[in-house]
Amino acid sequence: MKHYALIALVVLTTIGCQQTQYDSAPDPAHVAWTKLLGESIKLHAQVSLADRARVTQSWADAPSTSLLVSFWAPADTFRGGPGRPPVASFVLVPWSTFEGSPGILTTVTDHTLVFESDDLYVMSSSDELQAACRALMEGVVDAPGNEEAWRTDDAPALPNPLTGHVARVARHYTQYDVTNLDDAPDQAILASMAPGRMLLLVDAHADPSAVWVHPAPMPSRPPEPGEQTVGPDVDLKAEGKVMDQQVRNIFGATLGSALAQKDKSEAARRRLFEEALPSLKKAIFAYAGHTGPATAAGAAAYERAQEHLARWLVLDSMPDSAADFGGVDATGPLEEAVNIPPGFELENPASFLLRESLEELPQLLADLAKAKEQAKKDPGRWVEGRVELGADLKQYEPSEADHVVAAIGDSIQSIVQSAAPEELAAVLKKAGITDKQVTYDRFTTRLAKVVGTGPFEWSSGPIPTTVSLTSK
């Protein structure tokens, strides 16, 4: 059941809404997992809703970086006719620090905050299609499990000078109702309250009335007696990131295959699930062999990953073979133990989601060139805007190719900005890339809420963007 936390609805009249005091960019890993969650939502819609509704997704900049997911009735029905709002609309925010909330909280997963707009037009008191879309979302993000109430006894005390009480402890976040949010201490102090868990502070009398705080990382534990430890030439934190990316690659490849294949039967998806298990097991157990007893740490992590993947593939239950934790050599280096499924061609919309590291920048640059050529053949268009519904006089409608170009370009920009100058130069030199910069068009999305209806999603026109490939 959905937990309706006391959260202020922030009307997103423009994507450029400013964060005032509390803000931080999301970790790229959280963004990547949120992208994959979006792919799973598409698959769930194909399987569960079929032709009853279509799904659109677009990235926005507020609150924080967020993925807007909307469900629309078919265009040839009254519910989906011209000018009609979406049946249901959700905002997926990767873990980050930001002020306000874009709707009613559905749940918080281990990487993503999920909100539902509470300003949608409901056709009747028993709107079956809207209920089906909501049930789909709650199922794919495991809202019942994530929103199960935990004991509040062990919740940390509020730091001075905040006053209030713990209102809720769920699997991935803790909520405090406070009376003096304007007096909250520095972001770093709040982040250290509950490492590994999102923090929500709510003050009904403040503006904004809610602050979400990205937690500090979980502290590393001391090794157990007799436990295998990492050698002096191995960076455990770096290996953990590699393992996480390898697991994401496996999830992305499996979801991409499920979306691309015409057979949407559960048997077909179950085969994809079973094919992914050997690679998933090797990735997790190889890392577990360095961080703790492989049997205990690996089995627990492997079981969670299987349950996660099964839910995202719309499987009611896991095959019996999923319970097999044995047969894995976890003693070798991670890069040798992991066997990743091959990537996809550019025509697969999920392909660029599988590349996030600096080493993959050359391939992303090649993908961008191909995508820009495709966008020339399939460009977006300018149309007369529905001003009465919050659109501009001239409204741009990006094509699917436009969105692919923007997504690849944004990935390139993220990688370049986070790379050390000397490492960036070395990777480009090795790949024989001499370009000093790349250009692409990106888009922002605006939610317009009109009295009595809405919200409606409107895109900006193309925003020319240049990414420098030279040392900063």
In short:
With 472 residues, the protein is α+β, with helices and mostly antiparallel strands.
Question: What this model shows, in words?
Answer:
The chain has 472 residues and is α+β, with helices and mostly antiparallel strands. The chain has three domains: 1-220, no CATH class; 236-337, no CATH class; 360-468, no CATH class. 35% of the residues lie in helices and 18% in strands. The protein has helices spanning 28-49, 128-140, 143-146, 187-191, 236-260, 266-291, 294-312, 334-337, 361-377, 400-418, 421-430, and strands spanning 54-60, 66-72, 88-94, 98-99, 104-108, 112-116, 164-169, 173-178, 198-202, 210-213, 381-384, 394-397, 437-442, 445-450, 453-459, 463-468. A five-stranded antiparallel sheet has the order 1-2-3-6-5, covered by helices on one side. The chain has a five-stranded mixed sheet with strand order 4-10-9-8-7. A two-stranded antiparallel sheet has the order 11-12. The longest helix is centred in the middle third of the chain and has 26 residues, at 266-291. It is globular and about 60 Å long.
Report the C-alpha radius of gyration, rounded.
23 Å
Tally the helices: what do you get? Answer: 11
Quick one: biggest sheet?
5 strands, antiparallel
Give the count of structural domains.
3
Given helix and strand content, the structural type is alpha+beta
The fraction of residues in strands falls at 15-25%
Spatially, the strands of the biggest sheet line up as: 1-2-3-6-5
